[in-house]
Design brief:
1 helix; 4-stranded antiparallel β-sheet; 13 strands; 2 domains; 253 residues
Length: 253
């Protein structure tokens, strides 16, 4: 065998070993590399899903209903700034969804409501769904502190409408752009028999403001065992938390 043939043979053998090495590396990369995420985008922390505690459809008239779902966030450190939900209604002919938007703070239990919905008596409430939600987020400020005081309720003698009124005190260390006050009435069996809500705009730090809600005269309540009043503000949204500075001082006077 000539020197040229020997050199060619060495190159051939070295090339074969190199090819085998490349194949082995490719196999190792394929086996041990992290799998591609089928849902690209920022991933949330180690959290538990929201819990739907109870739902109810309440009749206001022959063709009008209130819808309510009580939802708990079991995560004390993380909330959701924006989410969409749907009440799923059905009758013998079709399924219908009544959608809404909301939020939920860390560790919060909230009532999600859709009021005065045009629905006739043929429909029943099948389920409640969280359809979409933002990634989990931590609060960048202390949680809002909203205190309920001077609660009163009963039948209004002037218009024969049942109402609940009281005061909300903002003990948070900041002003709030929007505060939602949700009221749920419970009977002796613990079931929700009535739901309502109202909103306040620009509730300042240490400010006390009165709220009032009324139900239609077509609705009557008896044997109300408990009234739950839950004020809430979306402190995950920077537009909700307001601090007084020299630039915006005038709008609070």
């Amino acid at each position: 065998m000539t020197d040229t043939e020997r050199q060619f043979k060495r190159f051939f053998i070295a090339g074969g070993y190199g090819l085998v090495l490349i194949i082995c590396i490719a196999v190792l990369v394929f086996v041990f590399a992290p799998a591609e995420n089928p849902f690209p985008g920022p991933q949330g922390p180690d959290t538990e899903p929201l819990q739907v505690k109870r739902t109810k459809m309440l009749s206001l008239s022959e063709d009008t209903r209130d819808l309510v779902a009580e939802v708990k966030n079991p995560n004390d450190r993380y909330g959701i700034r924006k989410l969409t939900y749907a009440f799923v209604l059905e009758n013998d002919e079709e399924t219908r969804k009544v959608r809404g938007k909301s939020y939920i703070l860390p560790g919060e239990t909230r009532f999600f409501t859709e009021l005065n919905v045009s629905v006739d008596s043929s429909y029943s409430l099948r389920t409640f769904e969280i359809e979409t939600q933002d990634t989990w987020k931590q609060l960048e400020v202390n949680p809002p502190t909203l205190v309920v005081q001077n609660q009163r309720q009963g039948q209004n003698k002037d218009n024969n409408r049942y109402g609940v009124r009281g005061e909300i005190v903002n003990r948070s260390p900041y002003d709030l752009d929007t505060v939602t006050v949700t009221i749920a009435l419970e009977g002796k069996d613990g079931n929700i028999v009535g739901v309502n809500n109202t909103q306040m705009s620009i509730l300042q730090n240490d400010e006390t403001r009165e709220f009032q809600v009324q139900w239609p005269s077509s609705v009557s309540f008896s044997n109300i065992e408990r009234t739950r009043i839950r004020p809430s503000a979306n402190a995950l949204d920077p537009d909700t938390v307001l601090y007084i500075t020299e630039e915006n001082e005038d709008q609070f006077q």
